[in-house]
Amino acid sequence: MADEIKSVIKEIEKEMERAIQAMEVDFQAIRTGRASPALVERIPVEYYGAQVPLQQLATITVPEAQVIMIKPFDPTTLKTIEKAISASDVKLVPNNDGKVIRLNIPPLTEERRRDIVKLVHKRLEEAKVAIRNHRREGMEMLKALEAEERITEDEHKRGKQELENLTHRFTARADELGARKEREIMEM
């Protein structure tokens, strides 16, 4: 395979990997009924006029399976953090004892689990669309290389097949991650 094709494949593979990683990060923030720091660490908090992720302002721990504990580095930010959590879409009620904030994770209802699974499917589909868009970019790059006569028609076909294989591999990986997250959500 020509070096030009290898570099196209390598570049597209990196982009597809980024799409999978972005989906995994999103999945970490989706509630499963268990406490996880990922549920709250990216909540934006107003700090001296700027929006800062909560993880930069506090230590986030899970002392029990159903509790998230947030200990601010600066105790004066306690109220601001509490307000940001209340305003966020995590739908958890912060309990402020003056030193730390505790978030109790209630068990998920069947209906809420189904809603969360729909969210997982939506995010999964977004990742697959991103993967297919990267495949299309790769196809266009190969077509341009052939038009510039830097690769032959046969090399172009082999490159296209390689892109298809890459796409199938990443799509299958996304499906597997989505199925795993769905099982995690649906288990009681």
From TrEMBL:
Organism, scientific name: Candidatus Thermofonsia Clade 3 bacterium
Protein name stated in the entry: Ribosome-recycling factor
Domain Ribosome recycling factor: 25-186
Localization, UniProt: Cytoplasm
Role noted for this protein: Responsible for the release of ribosomes from messenger RNA at the termination of protein biosynthesis. May increase the efficiency of translation by recycling ribosomes from one round of translation to another.
Signal peptide interval: none
Annotated GO CC locations: cytoplasm
Recorded family membership: Belongs to the RRF family.
Presence of the UniProt keyword Protein biosynthesis in the record: yes
Chief localisation class: cytoplasm
